[in-house]
Model the fold of this input.
Amino acid sequence: MCRLLAYLGSPISLEHLLYKPEHSLIVQSYQPREMISGVVNADGFGVGWYHNQKDTDPFIYKNTLPIWNDINLPSLSRYVESKCVLAYVRSATPGQAVDFANCQPFNHRQQLFIHNGRIENFRKTLHRKIRSTLTQEFYEKINGSTDSEHIFALLLSQSQINKHRPPEYALRTTLLTLLEMAKRYQVEASLNVIFSNGHRLIGSIPVFAKRAEISQDKYDEYIYLTMTPEQKQALQEHIQAMPAAGYANAKILYEDTTPERLTSLARIEEAVRSQMQKHVMPEVGVFLSKRLRAQKQGINDD
Done:
């Protein structure tokens, strides 16, 4: 599995983001924890960032070398500052080429995109299915062979089709489309994505489809919202004021916090959406992502 980094805030140097933290992206490239497959993230890397003053397309620096072997990155990272940064280190799926076309972040105009996860046996399972759903423009823009780039193309296609809706809606539709495909064709998939236009970060909590359990339909339900701190406070107050039955342990996942464990929220999704549209945030993006129950008791917290 790859490792992702996303930052949005006051201007900060790439050096501070990439090198300074105890478990920095550099460290996670050669000493990752909780790897599902592989041992290191040594199949290339990429960093994308936005200009601090100009509203221009993002800058991207990529290499197919391991990030610790790039002799230019340390110097570059000391001189570059940005308010918004997306980066990743790659652990390539067996059979996928290690080349620049398959190296993230992927971009289209002002949008940057990174993905951590995989679609099982992608070329033989969902490759053609995904391509058949793309708009012509983004079908033609695919340069590489990864499932990640195809997921981005699907997201861009959904954004184009739903151009009058907020970007969260396109992400919701993309994830639900992929989960439905995985369920229909009995394919395992893990979908953890982040994308940005330089002013916002929008992402999903990890979404999994497991082949052996897909048909059982035993899911835990989570709700994910992207919002400002002011909207967050208003919505939390609204949630706390709702009737106690079924809502006492309800929590919301915010763009600016670590994901928190949730109880089942299917019953209040419509009520929350309705209230938000009327009083809190008319264009909020809301979607439920379903995660498989790892054990008979408790909630999967990974």
Observations:
- Residues 213-227, 242-302 have pLDDT under 50 and may be disordered.
- DSSP finds nine helices and eleven strands in the chain.
- The longest strand covers residues 3-13.
